[in-house]
Structure formats: C-alpha cells, structure tokens
Design brief:
Number of domains: 1
Helix content: 55-70%
Strand content: under 5%
Largest sheet: 2 strands, antiparallel
Length: about 300
Amino acid sequence: MHTPDGFITSWICVITLLFSLGLIVYSAIRLQKTMTKENAYLMSGLAAAIFAFQMLNFSIGGGTSGHLIGAALVAILLGPEAAVLVLSAVLLVQTLIFADGGLLAIGVNIFIMGVVASYAAHYAHQLLRKRLPILSGMFASVISVVVAAFTLSLLLGVSKTVPFGAVIPAMVITHFFVGLGEGLITGALLFSIKQSKQLLLTGQQNNSLVRNVLFSTLGSYAIMAVALPFASTHPDGLASVAINLGFFGRGVELFMISPFANYEILGNGSYLFVLGSCLMGMLLTFGLSYVVTKKLIPTQA
C-alpha cells in the first residue's frame, strides 16, 4: 500500500506529513515514560523483521498481491505508540534508501500504515483480546488493513485522482483479501512469539534478551530468503486498483538516481542481490529504531 508521488495532491501530503510528525513526537513522549532496554531491543527487532516480511508479496487472486503491513502485530504486542515508531522507521528506510513509496508522499504512507493501521488494530484488538487473544489479533489485522485502505481511498478522492464511488469499494474489497492474508500471518506470529515475549519482558538478563532478539531477527531473514523465490510478482492492492481504475499513470518517480531502487543493487535484481538489499535494509531499520528508542529510555531504567 506504499503510495507513490503523484497520487495524492501536494497540500494533503504536507498536512499528513505534519500530522504524522506530531504523532511520532506524541508517541515518543508517551513511550518515554515506560521505555526499557528490553522494549527498545524488541521494537528494533520487530522493525527489522517487518522490513523483511514486507518484501514478500502473497497472491490474493485476480492478478493482485498483498504484503504484510505489520502495524497490527506491533500494536498488539507493544501498543499503538510503539507501532507508530516502528512503522515510521521501516517506511523511512524503504522510501529514502529503496525508493519504495513516494518521497513527497512519505507523510501519507506513515499516516496510513503507521498511524491509521496501528490505532485501528489497537482498538479492534480490545474487543476480543481477553477471551480470544489469537483470533482477536487476526481480526485486528484485517480491520487495520481495511481501515487503512478506506482512509487512503478518501485521500485519493479528495485529491480528485479518482471518484469516491469508484475507489472506495475497489480499495476496500481488494484490501479485505489482503487483510485476510495479514491476519493469518499475524495470527501465526502471535502464536509463535507469545510465550517468548512474556519471558523477555519478565526479567531475563540483557544478554539473553539480545540473543533472543538476534535469533528472531535472523530467523525472519531466513524465512524471507526461503520464501522470496515463491513471492508473487503481481502488482499490490493499491497498484492493481490504480491500473483497473486508470490512474496508475499519475504516479511519478522523483528518485532519478537510486542505486537500491526496487530492492535491487545497481539495477541487478537477481536473487542474491535482493537478499543483500534485504539484509542492508534490516540492518538500517534495526539501527534507526534502536537509536531512537534508546534515547527514550529514562536515565534510571
């Protein structure tokens, strides 16, 4: 759902950027009260893992694919404020280094996938989390994707890129199926890391925590490496809707020279080079997230 430049009018890009920056600052202030080294490592590891998983598109049929957003996963595990910071780190690296998403539209992408998806997942999760924690996480994931898609539809309509009556049903229906995929992935991840998260947050020593986060992050990279040859090459939900409704050509590319565009290295998109891009992106995302979250740790923590 990475929005390229040209889809959203400039004044909306500016407003969403300012609003997103405000939410990032707000989230940082909220997290500063409770941030620990454990949570800093966890957020950084999740950011790196989400970067890797977002490179894997899965088919939803009809020549369309989708990929994990990851906001629901972080919001469920660590809260919506943590999800805002984690997704912001992921999206910044994707945009600035790999030209994935528009440079002027960075505020739109952070707002849609970092803010809207995170808070939609958080509130949806509250409905069932006590009785059905895993199913609640899956439900929250679907809701997060659909609400994010609906919100982006409104921005596209306000931008007069495409009529509301055409884009809203197309985006919501398409991303409902993307959300189902995200729900299954999130449910599997929640099931597998629930116990380990409890252990990590209840008194393990720092060295043990670092080792667990390292192994989990490397595990994410290994999954990406194994799954990459089977990933769908079809356009994602937003691109597919744009093609079908005739506004795909409005996208513009501001990165005239980007050696890592499309997760390639100097234009080479072979398997090993994409793996290299993934590793570089994971390291950059982990580093950015850790630098930010470490600054939020109270001096007495």
